[in-house]
Amino acid sequence: MNIFFLLSLLLLPIFSLLISRRRRQPSERVPPGPLGIPIIGQSLGLLWAMRANTAEKWIADRAKRYGPISKMSLFGKPTVFIHGQAANKFVFTSDASKMSNQQTESVKMILGDRCLLELSGEDHKRVRNALASFLKPDSLKNYIGKIEEEIRRHLQMHWQGKHRVTVLPLMKTLTFNIICSLLFGVERGARRDTFVQFFQEMIEGMWSIPVNIPFTRFNRSLKASAKVQKLLKDLIHEKRIELEKGASPHQDLITCLLSIRGEDNLELVSEHEIIHNVMLIMVAGHDTSSVLITFIIRLLANDPNTHAAVLKEQEEIKNSKPSGDYLTWEDLGRMKCTWRVAMETLRTVPPVFGGFRKTLEDIEYEGYIIPKGWQIFWVTSMTHMDDKVFPEPSKFDPARFENPASIPPYYYIPFGGGARICPGYEFAKIETLVTIHYLVTQFTWKLCCNDNCFRRDPTPAPTQGLPIQIVSKKAL
Q1: Helix or strand holding residue 424 (H, E)
Q2: Residues 6+ positions from 351 with CB-CB distance below 8 Å
Q3: Run of H or E residues at 122
Q4: CA–CA separation, 434 vs 155, rounded Å?
Q5: φ and ψ at 461, to 5 degrees?
């Protein structure tokens, strides 16, 4: 990180004019707070706090000092930080003509500018509806067996017969294999292995200061992103040929998107949009599900009562079916206790720390003006730990979600909210429930270390990747 600080000083004369323009305020009603060092701003402070597992305190201290709205500079752009239920509602329901999706410049450069995180208005609605046609429950229920096959194969290869495993990297391997199978139609082999290699390099620099200098994480991520996009372009070409030869348009996400037609029978989603949104789903599906499952495994090892309740529910489902039968949509609907545990895990350790929006015009909020072109930054955990809605917020209590309707809107936002809720919510739910079903019914485990700390880079990662000792109950 020190290299970025030194470079910022060296580049200061070059960027001084740009920064001075950004700092000219259209009104004295701009929120309080310093913008910090040019280009760098508060980026290093936030990144260091995330990796030291003190990001929530870093944010809370800032909120305590400046109030519910303050300005800073993150990842090269002037930014306004807002928090609370009203802030969440403001972010997720604002008029698309006033505020657009906006990720950090590093994310935009790595994932592309035609993914859902960047699209607004009619373009956002068009692409989101296309993705939802594949990710909605009515469609996904047809793919439960395919997901289950990947999970069974994974456990046979990486868990059965082992005495010790490291959970997080294995869960990332599992979720990526599910993505390759279900979303790309890429089976095991050299192509999938190549995808994994480039994908892992790509995500390492997602939250970085966007200075493209050789040998930095950001530079490596950009190069890997170009390779992933080339692989996807080749795959799309092959899928088009398969469709022309009569292949089913429902075999995977890419063929589904290619088969959706608009006016004049033209493809509704462009090739660039398919590539950029497939990359987005790769990142979202890989990180959120793998992190969620990992932290559930840690929780079940630490909490015997919760483990017993989840095991009882899953054993009842298993024993109600003939041996070897696949799970059904109805079986997943019976996993209410397990999903409450997952929801409470998402509350206490949200995989997504926060997000960004971009103002398209000067916007008034809480008596201040947020200038046009600035970023708006919101943080998930601020309302997840609000003791007015979640009493004793540091206590793990799945019973909070026995009646989800009792939780006021825009307090619980692990998947976003309103029209901006993640379209992959049901996909993540299926992955999680099926994986936990097989883990608790086929294995027992205990932690190899008692350190419950984790860091964010940018998603949560337990110490040492969560090594556990496992005992197989019987062969799958």
Answers
A1: none
A2: 287, 288, 291, 292, 414, 459, 460
A3: helix 121-135
A4: 12
A5: -140, 115
Using DSSP's 3-state secondary structure scheme, residue 50 falls into helix
Per DSSP, which regions of 174-307 are E strands?
none
Give per-residue pLDDT as tens, 415-448. 888 766 777 888 899 999 999 999 999 999 999 9
Say which residues have a Cβ less than 8 Å from residue 226's Cβ, sequence separation at least 6.
none
The first and second tokens of residue 347, run together, are 């509350």
Helix (H, G, I), strand (E, B) or coil at 416: strand
- Tell whether omega for the bond before 31 is within 30 degrees of 0, i.e. cis: no
Six-digit token string for 45? 């402070």
CA-only gyration radius of the chain, Å: 23
Question: What span, in angstroms and rounded, lies between the C-alpha atoms of 56 and 78?
Answer: 21
Q: Please provide the DSSP assignment of 335-393 as one string.
A: -HHHHHHHHHHHHHS-S--EEEEEESS-EEETTEEE-TT-EEEEETHHHHT-TTTSSST
Annotated binding site: 422
Two tokens at 450? 């008692």
Model pTM score = 0.85
Phi-psi region of 121 (alpha: psi -120 to 50; beta: other; left: phi over 0): left
Residue 54 to residues 51, 59, 185, 377: CA-CA distances in angstroms?
Answer: 8, 9, 40, 18
Binding-site positions for heme: 422
The structural domains of the chain, ordered by start, are: 2-472 (1.10.630.10)
How does pLDDT run across 26-74, given as a tens digit for each residue?
456 889 988 888 778 888 898 888 888 888 899 989 989 998 899 999 8
